[in-house]
Structure prediction request, 126 residues.
Amino acid sequence: MGKTSLTFDFGSMVFEDRILIVTLNEDLEITESILEKIFTEGAALSRGVPYSILADVRKNVSSTSSARKYGAHHPFMKQLVAQALIADTSAVIILANFFIKVNKPEIPTRLFKKKEDAIAWLRSTL
Prediction:
């Protein structure tokens, strides 16, 4: 599979080597409908092949409670191998850790400060 890039009103996605990199817009509140769009596009781009997601949430992103629950346990989870989050501000790091520890995603999920570290970990899971 080659590299595919998509742009949406909430951010952008790049799918390459079985990793979907999602970069979200600044000050975005993630909702269930945004996550559903991300997972739907990821499933289509992967063409049924298991893949991983890297969510870049460094731009002061927040999320609704229903989005966090959906992000941890959604119908597309069976196609995902792992997910990584990149955060570098205290508020977003706290929110990301809350998601990981309280919502308990069904797949391995880790928080990183550096994109390169997140991609290396995701590659190791594929």
